[in-house]
Design brief:
38% helix, Aspartate Aminotransferase, domain 2, 2 domains, 14 helices, four-stranded antiparallel beta sheet
Length: 421
Amino acid sequence: MTLDVSRIRKDFPILDRTVRGDQPLIYLDSANTSQKPRQVIDAISDFYERHNANIHRATHQLSEEATEAYEGARIKAAGFIGAASESEVVFTKNISEAINLVAYSLGNASAGFPAPDRFKLGPGDEIVVTEMEHHSDLVPWQLLCQRTGATLRWFEVTPEGRLDLSTIDELINERTKLVALVHQSNVLGTVNPVRQIADRAHAHGALVLADAAQSVPHMPVNVQDLGADFVGFTGHKLCGPTGIGVLWGRRELLDEMPPFLGGGEMIETVWIDHSTFAQPPHKFEAGTMPIAEAAGLNAAIDYLSEIGLDAVHAHEQALLADALTQLKGIDGLRILGPDQPEDRGTAVSFEVDGVHPHDVSQVLDELGIAVRAGHHCAWPLHRKLGVQASTRASFYLYNTHEEVTALADGIRQAQKFFGVA
């Protein structure tokens, strides 16, 4: 199926605006956050205009409608990723909170909260990550190791931007309690073999968490096939609103895990000196949740499902192949990570000889081209690749081949401006 990109672009009001004077907006920063279609904007507006109330807590009609919208989004999200039940879907404010939920739950188990031994860590235990992790899937595990005395270990990254799996049998062993890895890198675009790594981890009884923030918006992802025990993603990268994320976890694990935050709604019964807790997923959802955002997420999932993620992925792969070809044709430009589209997403980070990434980004911005410059919340990866920062262009369903060409032309203009062409 071929996407009708011109029709799709009409759904995104922001793409009609100009920037930096009269420059048409060319938005190539969807790995950072995606733009929102009118359908999502309208769903949020409709919630606030007609249904606004708190959920689960009242018997009046508005509360019933709000609860239906919120829980309907949970059902929709569960189906979107192939969850066995909507009870396996926990709403958070973003994927960072989703990952922290798991980390702090394990920390609570390790601190004495009643829980099976598989959730408890201490000296001698190990957590395995990778060098290509976003800080959101690295810092929580550093903190957990500091709290429990466990040791952090990691897969290294090859010069080509792939995980070095030659050490898998040594890294994942009887001491491993958890493996956390990104499904698709936000810097390199690399798609990692989560299933292979998860099978190795499960053979040693370890838990596996996959950061799918960059994959779920761009390709069909089925959590059963992925093989992890926990999978997280965030609404604002898949045409949905900010303020809502998703943690999927196997129900038997969520049943046994300690809660993350305490407060209203996550309880079963409260006494002055102790409490019992609700069943998942509500055990992990304390206080007033992002209700309007859930309505927006529901609309975003509907939008992408109607278009079809297979078609989205095919369109993006064509853009990616075009971008890699055009950027490789620019003298003095180095692409970070794989320079072929196989097992790769559309986040393309690069450095330009003699021009700082922020200067490249600024020149592009003056041309109306929005990219990102910096370490992209992946400092260890940039150090491994021998660079302090990079410029990143990332593509989504609303981008065109003409915009790929504009990017390449803009980079050449930056080289001329700084006298390195």
